[in-house]
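Morning!

This is the sequence you dropped in the shared folder:
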Amino acid sequence: MLKTAVVILNWNGEKFLEQFLPSLIKNTPDPETEIIIADNDSKDDSIDFLNKNYPELRQIILDKNYGYTGGYNRALKQIEAEYFVLLNSDIEVSENWLTPLISMMDSDKTIAACQPKILSFDHKNNFEYAGAAGGFIDKFGYPFCRGRVLNTIESDEGQYNDSCDVFWATGASLAIRADIFNKVGGLDDDFFAHMEEIDLCWRLKNMGYRIVYNPESVIYHVGGGTLPNNSPFKLYLNFRNNLFLLYKNLPQGNLFSILFTRMILDGLSAMTFLFKLSFKDFYAVLKAHIHFYKSLSKLRAKRKKLLLNVEVSKHKEMYKRSIVINYFINKNKSFNTLDFNN
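The structure's back. Tokens below.
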């Protein structure tokens, strides 16, 4: 059995494969590690490119685009390894990027997953939006990172060069124990894409496992390679999936109050889009809520099953206040200004 499988889920990403595979192969020399490309039914020339230039790399060809969640779930079922590393195609890895992640998990069996320091490919002194120096979440389900609070991105000045427990590790570069990934049923297929790694990590933390950030590993992420940041479909997924993960994972005593408040906040967001005449964005939020209500029966069954495995319901990595209020009202726009104790 493999020690580590580095798996790239590709969808129409030929240009990224051409750009970033050379550095990945060069900087991943471990004979116990295999690089595998899983293809989500790409319509570009990705497969021809791989066959011509990298025939030695294993390919897993899927029959349609199953999204991030379904694509990885189906691909990883075909791989036997001790560790999975889910890696986006639009990432440049640095020298010795993998060893610190695997060594960390080898040294502590309570660590289920970890992530590297993620910097911007285009602005290498800045953290990257999707993961930065580890992910956190506030009481209403809004995610943020060390190095990125809402839309404010910090420069990397060594302020987050300490390893620490986080609430979630980014799906852009997620190292996870394969047996635990399989034990919890992998990613939630119904998410399709976006926030699926937060849901996975929340489930793991509720079971008592740790999620850790390791700054000794550094990668550079382009970001927005599959769906642009201004995509109404992306907005829909983010709003819908946020409700999904809250409903599935919140403690019983907080479920109604948090969801009720979150729905009010989503309504305010929708009205803001409407006043700005952003009709597609308004409809994306409305559609997200309609889909959530239609999914309640299925979500209720998932929640009932997950509650049976909860060992820890309170997490110090969850911000006890509203990150939105702190950002816009109190002007706390960097992670180090946040007080997690109150």
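Headline: The chain is about 40% helix and 20% strand.

More detail when I'm at my desk.
O.
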